[in-house]
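queue> pop job 88
queue> type: inverse folding (structure -> sequence)
queue> payload:
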């Protein structure tokens, strides 16, 4: 079953980027997730739209004047455009396209301004029924603004300021002095809700960082920092950074060190661990960018080449044999040499399972190991597919 994954893009403009700023130490992956959170909770969005449009419509019917008519028309236009942008963004997110985040964020601020405008013209009208209704509407929106958009605390503060700030200005022109109390209430409310948004944002970022770190630990080898089996399988199925998911044109190399056990027996596990770390470092250098490298425990490693590798897989295997055959200097008095047996399997077709390719490479590795140290072997099916043989695996000496 295919699952649609929505990925929302970060804003490009300076203003929208500033509004969505969540902290200097927030990783890119989390910033993308925070931006995506602004597009969710459609029922809350629709509830807010229906509330503000209904209030504007009722008060325009009560006061059929230009100021109220402008409010109703602008409110309808902004809400309709926001809804269209939201629906379009969600569809584009499923296709991996730009999600119009700049427009969506700026429209949110404009919507806050329309709510504030309605409250301002209502209090200027001298109709306390209209003023009370519009003030209640603006205040009611604040909770939704905070809890729907706390992924962007600055946006929350700006939207609250634009929706409630005009209430303070209108109070200065009102005949009732009691309305001046809003000059104290609203700034305090603005500060409290903005602080709540920052608090919620901090908790969300901390949770996402913890989940990200737990996921990284679950999919990486604790000693070498390479992927483990689960991490390799996940990356091959879904992609990982610049790496595309497993597809034809790629190859999987399965490596097993020759002579590693005698190192552990002679020098102890601490030296053996140091050797594995050095091996991982050399594999990173040889495999290059765009390749996946994993340690499967013990002295077994696997490499999945990039979609368009710089060299054929059998040449890469030869280079790995050469590099790992060089001595490892582990301290002033410890110089160690090990070898490596390499099995190679090519990805035969679109949708190939990583497990089947791993088995083929593993079998080829054992063929190479039976031939002696420092050898490479191509899986039989891979040889037939590439025209490099007649279905018989080969092994070559360094």
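queue> result:
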């Amino acid at each position: 079953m295919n699952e649609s994954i929505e990925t929302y893009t970060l804003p490009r403009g300076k203003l929208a980027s500033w509004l969505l700023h969540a902290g200097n130490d927030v990783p890119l992956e989390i910033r993308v997730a925070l931006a995506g959170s602004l597009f969710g909770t459609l029922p809350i969005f629709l509830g807010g739209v229906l509330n503000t449009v209904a209030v504007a419509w009722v008060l325009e019917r009560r006061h059929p004047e230009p100021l109220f008519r402008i409010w109703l028309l602008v409110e309808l236009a902004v809400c309709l455009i926001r809804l269209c942008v939201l629906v379009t963004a969600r569809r584009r997110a499923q296709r991996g396209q730009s999600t119009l985040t700049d427009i969506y964020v700026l429209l949110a601020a404009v919507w806050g301004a329309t709510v504030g405008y309605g409250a301002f013209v209502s209090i200027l009208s001298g109709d306390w029924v209209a003023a009370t209704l519009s003030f209640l509407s603006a205040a009611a929106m604040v909770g939704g603004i905070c809890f729907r958009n706390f992924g962007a605390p600055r946006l929350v503060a700006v939207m609250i300021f634009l929706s409630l700030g005009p209430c303070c200005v209108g109070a200065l022109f009102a005949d009732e002095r009691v309305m001046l109390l809003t000059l104290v209430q609203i700034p305090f409310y603005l500060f409290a809700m903005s602080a709540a948004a920052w608090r919620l944002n901090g908790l969300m970022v901390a949770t996402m960082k913890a989940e990200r770190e737990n996921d990284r630990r679950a999919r990486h080898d604790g000693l070498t920092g390479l992927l483990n089996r689960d991490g390799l399988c996940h990356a091959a199925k879904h992609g990982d950074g610049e790496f595309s998911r497993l597809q034809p044109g790629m190859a999987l190399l399965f490596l097993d060190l020759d002579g590693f056990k005698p190192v552990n027996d002679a020098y102890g596990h601490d030296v053996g661990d140091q050797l594995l770390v050095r091996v991982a470092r050399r594999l990173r250098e040889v495999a290059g960018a765009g390749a996946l490298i994993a340690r499967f425990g013990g002295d077994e490693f696997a490499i999945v080449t990039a979609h368009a590798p710089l060299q054929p897989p059998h040449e890469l295997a030869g280079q790995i044999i050469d590099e790992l055959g060089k001595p490892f200097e582990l301290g002033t008095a410890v110089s160690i040499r090990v070898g490596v047996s390499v099995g190679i399997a090519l990805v035969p077709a679109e949708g190939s399972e990583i497990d089947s390719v791993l088995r083929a490479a593993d079998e080829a590795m054992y063929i190479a190991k039976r031939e002696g140290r420092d050898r490479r072997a191509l899986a039989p099916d891979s040889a037939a597919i590439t025209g490099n043989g007649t279905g018989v695996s080969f092994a070559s000496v360094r």
